[in-house]
Task: structure prediction
Amino acid sequence: PAGSKRRQLIAEDAEAIYRLRPPATYDKQARRGSMVQCKSIAPQYGVSAKTIRDIWRGRTWIQATEHLWTEEERARRARRLAEGGPASDSDNSDGGERIGRTGSGSSDTVSEA
Result:
């Protein structure tokens, strides 16, 4: 919206954000949940911490980041899709899959309502 302090991401931004995700821990569960890290990165891109987290979790900007996914991440996504569940690391409250932003040549408005 006009006057918003948020900016629009482009695919290159999403890829750069994805590359900033924390390294995997031994249990591989804590990689993408640190709100402290999300909050520190978000202002650099003019987006919310949730936007950062959603990119890290594969909920948004899938086409821009998929080439960076590990084999394990690809397998987990395929398994979830095959089971009919959400494809991302976190469930939606309504139980449906959130397709998210794809970054397919257009920019993504990340301002929040």
Q: What stands out?
A: The first helix runs from residue 11 to 19.
